[in-house]
Design a protein that fits this description.
The chain is α+β, with helices and mostly antiparallel strands and about 325 residues long. The protein folds into 3 domains: about 60 residues, Endonuclease III, domain 1 (Orthogonal Bundle); about 90 residues, Endonuclease Iii, domain 2 (Orthogonal Bundle); about 140 residues, Alpha-Beta Complex (Nucleoside Triphosphate Pyrophosphohydrolase), CATH 3.90.79.10. Strands 1, 2, 3, 4, 5, 6 and 7 form a 7-stranded mixed beta sheet that branches. Helix 7 packs across helix 9. It is elongated, with a radius of gyration of 25 Å. It starts with 6 loop residues before the first helix and ends with a helix.
Length: about 325
């Protein structure tokens, strides 16, 4: 949960999560909708799916028994080297090093490394060094200590070198180059994406259409249908041609960032006529070029089902629109 999410957000979500899913069997058998609700607000929903995959593997392939070694944890779906090393060292006292950003910073300063620490070769060199440092006794405590040292003393900016317990071993301190060790991590190139979110609304029943997205960077999530801005003009023409729909484009924009995508977008609202003989018709998804499957959800419960923060932003714009016209 704490991967790319602050602890202030994680702690209450974690408490709620383990309250509802206290065992690996509960997680393995958890309904997808409940899992989305429990993960709502944390983002990067693939993490939740991976947790469930790992739980199912443990229950179905290992008869509910947790692995007890680093290499056995690597066999669990969704469990990579860092997670496996944390579990193996902290929970099972295995001598295996955990290397995160804090550890990279501490070791870079210990060795006065001012270049090539973020490449595969550089990370491998850091891993080798920490593997040589880690003691036989209490390796989990060592891993937690060096990560905590990086988080609280050997900080990214304004490090507290005079309070550091390993200052005498630090080459960067001796050479007065702490501020440039390690070098800044190369920024991932951001990709600008312009989208339109489609909100189909049946006013008579106050329900909205929600898509099960199967492709794109928001695949395997549930939310409003999304279309690239390049396809918006054709979609608008189709919506305007449908007699049983009233079509609006909101002036307010939404913005969102996810992984390396910087998203900006607008909301298109298609309101079905209140004429009972017409509202029984379904929206012609095929004409709109939408291949996803859809469910009509009451507006009163919709917020709890949306998978992403982006969808919640779209829903908020829709709600604001409703407040203005009501």
């Amino acid at each position: 949960m704490s991967q790319q999410t602050t602890l202030a957000v994680v702690v209450p979500k974690f408490s709620e999560f383990v309250k509802h899913l206290p065992t690996v069997h509960d997680l393995a058998n958890c309904d997808e909708q409940i899992l989305r609700q429990l993960w709502s607000g944390l983002g990067y929903y693939a993490r939740a799916r991976n947790l469930k995959k790992g739980a199912k593997f443990i229950v179905e392939e290992l008869e509910g028994h947790f692995p007890q070694s680093y290499y056995d944890w690597l066999k669990i779906p969704g469990c990579g080297p860092y997670t496996a090393s944390v579990i193996a060292s902290v929970c099972f006292n295995e001598k295996v090093a955990c290397v995160d950003g804090n550890v990279v910073r501490v070791v870079s300063r210990l060795l006065a490394l001012s270049e090539d620490v973020w490449s595969s070769f550089g990370k491998s060199a850091i891993q080798t060094h920490v593997d040589q440092m880690i003691p036989e006794e209490r390796p989990g405590d060592f891993n937690q200590a060096i990560m905590e040292l990086g988080a609280t003393v050997c900080r990214k900016s304004k490090p507290l070198c005079l309070l550091c317990p390993i200052q005498e071993e630090c080459l960067a301190f001796a050479q007065n180059c702490v501020e440039i060790c390690p070098p800044k991590k190369p920024r991932r190139v951001m990709v600008d994406v312009e989208l339109f979110a489609l909100v189909f609304w049946r006013k008579a029943t106050d329900t909205l259409a929600i898509a099960h997205r199967t492709k794109g960077f928001l695949s395997n999530t549930v939310g409003f249908p999304l279309i690239p801005a390049t396809e918006a003009s054709e979609i608008k023409k189709v919506l305007q041609s449908l007699e049983h729909l009233q079509f609006f484009e909101l002036s307010s924009k939404f913005s969102h960032s996810i992984t390396h995508h910087r998203i900006s977008g607008r909301v298109l609202i298609a309101q079905e006529s209140e004429n009972p003989s017409i509202t029984t018709q379904s929206v012609p998804w095929e004409k709109l070029g939408l291949s996803q499957s859809f469910d009509w959800i009451p507006r009163s419960v919709l917020a709890s089902l949306l998978s992403t923060a982006l969808d919640n932003k779209v829903f908020k714009l829709f709600e604001n629109y409703q407040d203005k016209i009501s």
